[in-house]
Amino acid sequence: MRLALLLAALALLGPFMSEYGLKLASEALILGLYAMAFNLLFRQAGLLSFGQAAFFGLGAYAMALLTQKAEWPFLATLPASLLVSALGALIIGFFSIRLTRIYFTMLTLAFAQLLYAIAHKWYAFTGGDNGITDLRPPGLLGESLPFYYLVLLAFALAVIFLAALEGSPFGYALRALRDNRARAEAVGIDSFRHLLLAFVISGGLSGLAGFLQGALQRSVFPDYLFWTRSAEAILSTILGGSGFFLGPAVGASAFLLLRVVVQAKTEYWPFFLGVLLLLMVLFFPRGLTGLALGLIKWPTEVRRDASGG
Amino acid sequence: MDIGFYLLQLLTGLAYASTLFLLSVGLSLIFGAMGIVNFAHGSFYMLGAYLFYAFTRGQVEGFWGGLLSVLASGLVIGALVERLLIRPIYARPEEHQILLTYALLLILEDAVRFFFGAAYRSFPMPEAFSSPLFILGSPFPSYYLFLIGLAALFALLLWGFLYRTRLGVWIRAATQDREMLEALGVNVPLLYTAVFGLGIALAALGGAALLPLQAATPGMAVDAVISAFIVVVIGGLGSVWGALLGAVLIGLLQAFGILLLPEWAMVFPFGLMALVLLLRPWGLLGRPPAVRT
Amino acid sequence: MRRVLGLVLAVWVGLWILALSLGPVRAQGQQPIKVGALFILSGNFAGYGKSGSQGAQLAAEEINARGGVLGRPIQLVVVDDQGNPEVGVREARRLILQEKVDFLFGIDSSSVALAVAPLTDEYKIPLVVTHAATPTLTEQCRPYVFRTSNNARMDAWAAAALAATLPVKRWANIGPDYEFGRVSWQDFITRLKQLRPDVEVVSEQWPRFGSTDYASFITALMRARPEGVFSTLWAGDMVIFARQAKQFGFFNQVKYFVNPVGAALEVLAPLGKETPEGLLVSARYWFLYPNTERNRAFVEAYRKRFGEYPSYNAEEAYAGLHMLARAVEKAKSTQAEAVRRAFEADGGLVYDAPEGRKRMRPEDHQVFEGLVWGYTKHTPDYPFAILDRLRIIPANDTAYPTQCKR
Amino acid sequence: MTLLVAENIYRSFQGFMALAGVSLRVEEGSFHALVGPNGAGKTTLFNVITGRLAPDRGRVFFQGREITGWPTPRVARLGLAVSFQRAQPFVSMTLLEAVALARVGYQGKTFQLFTPLRHLVEVLEEARWALSKVGLDGAAQRRVSELPLGDLKRLDVAMALVARPKLLLLDEPLAGLSRAERRQMVEFIRGLLRQEGVTLLFTEHDTEAVLALADRITVLHQGQVLAEGIPEEIRQNAEVRKAFLGGAA
């Protein structure tokens, strides 16, 4: 219920926001969706993936290449982006999921960097570091408000899907595997297939975020695949509080806003961002959401529900 | 078939390997002993380069003194960082360590740019190494031989330290069983401070030792940490010999790879890392994680 | 204590969300002409961005000192695009929509320039590029994108024109492995083969852009025994490569080392007295050329203001802003279409910059200018190497035909 | 009908021969105890049967079908449920959710992404049944992380029971329980399971409980079957006494 309230509020806020506010809000929602996709793997299945940029980039490049080279209409490339990034996740997941802990994290990083190098070097096909530009969606979706509603719709559908998934047998199976893999397998839950499906879903949603970001930015570059993009998903999730359902989305918008706000003020924005992250880790491990809930003292019932109890 | 050239290429490969080893051995030591994933490792490598420049003020006479002072200050800085920032989050899950060290990366990059400015800082070549050695007729810089020697020396010193001293035994034991160590009355927190300090000192020394051949740039930390991770993952997280093997493999891969496939120099390290992770995830010389019954 | 810290944090962030989303605050009083400048102010290339922003700042101060443009002062808003295309687009939008700038300006990285360029069509805000060198930007022939400095193809053609005069048949390349490095080599060698069909390529080396070890590449190059080496290594890469190559005696064996971006002060200053002599290098501007009153005045003003010699990036930004001011005065308006016509009118706007005459080609808004090359040489009165035996390549030798394709 | 057959199982760990040619037959409806000192190979045999460990040699059949080398989840879905010696709960869930998930797991229906678990009425009923059987139905909504050890053990058994298994494997069900809890568990096993017609294979040290519960006993010693038979035969068996009681009369 709280979710619907929030989405409705965001929808109503649309027309009142300035052009720049719409662009910022769209990007915040896109990065929020991207962080939520990461948290599906991280919180539900306990997998710390450092390669989400691979799927974010695949989704963006699928859209860019199909619209630029194959003249596909913009929205027609949406299913293609989801498919390509999900397929990428299937292949990378197939190899990575067998590994555990830091080795899984490192292999996903290696795969993402391999894709970055390929996008960077395959100049003829991807345009290399010149990237692919002029990706403004034609017609209505090229305007800020309609595009904001497209992003909000995508965000809403993804978040509702993730909320449903969390309460579904599949969501419980993932958490069972995370809590105790041996016990989960002993009750008939096949760890490889469940984790791989979670990896593919997370990959597809990250691809969706990449698709939207490419359209918002009007261009796609190898940077979409670089490891700092994967780090962004992790930072947003922890900043927002990975223990809370909407934590990553809160973290993503806070992370984006802080970068924009602090960067507008000083050339040494990384320093201030670093200090803030340091404070968060040391004093507010439960993230901004944990902090906010602590401050506002919501009735415990809501808090229990918020943490996907 | 000119043997001379291939020998030369081998030496350049080993030279690059020695720079990679000096950069990454500290990371492997810290992860091995403490299980800490230190994303700021490259920043301490950068800090070492800039501190070396500051201590010697770019004067070539300060070379040897500069190296020692960087090693010492690296130890102190490492110990302080461990004591103040890393200790509170031992019990915390992995991603908190990643976030904290990433925050350190951001802070250090800007601190260096604030104090040293954005220009590239380099250091003149000490005369002892200014004339190249001639190997089968082609010149090979003596400073590279110094680096290869330094890397080999450190590999031996670390090996001796880890396998032949009581402190070393404790450090290796810390990887397997921290509780057992505490049971034996070892002051583990102090041990961790020492290990982290040593790891950072090695990184700082690596940065300093490379300055005569390279240049300190404000953005070098991000690139260095990726190279360090690749070396350590290939060699095996936590194994000092693994870091050496990983460094040598990448060094030789670049030295000879560019003869066959000059186009693909950029992809070699990641390709090798992915291959190793697929075939032997815990690295060539790493130990498989304790199999959970 | 933790609660208070948290509360402060939350309120602070909330305030900003409100400020950003509800719209800009309108500056009152005489409407300044706002120019949003994007430069790289962090990371490996912060040096280039800093000198660029300083050059633009000096120009703005000069313009305002003489009463501004159309009676309105120029207000320069400098932001850090970090050389990242996404940040570039986000910051450009903030400048356009939030700061309500009239023009976008500067941009060091080619990928950022290509990412920001489409916004000029979308928001009808002209962009004056002063550093990014990708020829692709010129080929796009966008109505509101203007480049007041030469692009990489012109440098390559100039290098080829020079190389053709050298007694060299065996050529090799070592360049950074990305578009700038690749395209420059392609343009150079194709153009050189047209001028000297007898040349041959003996080796191509492609180190990763930003790599810190060139030993293996140097030995591989030296083995091929090239007489001439073309390179577009720049920034830290060039500094590191030069130092390592010197150790290998590379510069004794290779007679001619040709680098169109090697004469940047960001490279020569850190190398100082260690710069090998006899390198045939160029940059878009060399502060000791031309020996005119105009140039000496600029160098002196820049040095007095910032305590360092102006690098090519500083002069190009300085000249770019002045040229933009000239166009606005001619157009008598800051409106995009008027400014475009002003740039294109009567054969293209001409401006006498410290480095010499710049003429904007109307078809693709690319400035053509003479390029200065020289051989590095150490002298007692400068802490770094200066250019000796200057070779000037006139503008029409580098003016390749217009190729608009998008 | 013989429910489970383990034929000539060999399994070694870096040279140590945990199982050296062990064979076992479990008849349907029987209560079969697997006893022996620590390190005799009991848990290893369990792990081979449930698929956690593949045998070096030998074959395993369940309801006449060969399942040698099958992965644990696939074996579990055949209706062969196991409850571990060390209870390993799903800490992030409530008791009801944990048992309900186990039910869905055994049915192999965990790939449902859209229907909420709490809407699966049949599953929840089965879960409540299993919890009531182990006397935990009152605590259904409590969080697993707040349970004492004794209850965790019973929850673990409930998670096996909810499968309505054809064969239930209990690995030292009495380990770590107080005297009262042990008596309660023995009662539970004897009374309830008879009623449900469950076939039980269990390991246990407490010889008194084994003799009270089992209608067939297999004695393992250093990876080999020392003796097999009904409780009385085993009690008199000289070999068993020698091995267990150190040869004392």
Automatic annotation (TrEMBL), chain A:
One GO CC term on file: plasma membrane
Predominant localisation class: membrane
Transmembrane segments: 28-43, 50-68, 74-95, 102-119, 147-174, 195-213, 233-258, 270-296
Record has Glycosyltransferase as a keyword: no
Topology of this chain in the membrane: Multi-pass membrane protein
Top-level taxon in the UniProt lineage: Bacteria
Keywords: Cell membrane, Membrane, Transmembrane, Transmembrane helix
Record-level Gene Ontology MF annotations: branched-chain amino acid transmembrane transporter activity
Keyword Transmembrane: yes
One Pfam match: BPD_transp_2
Cellular location(s): Cell membrane
Protein name per UniProt: Branched-chain amino acid ABC transporter permease
Native source species: Thermus islandicus
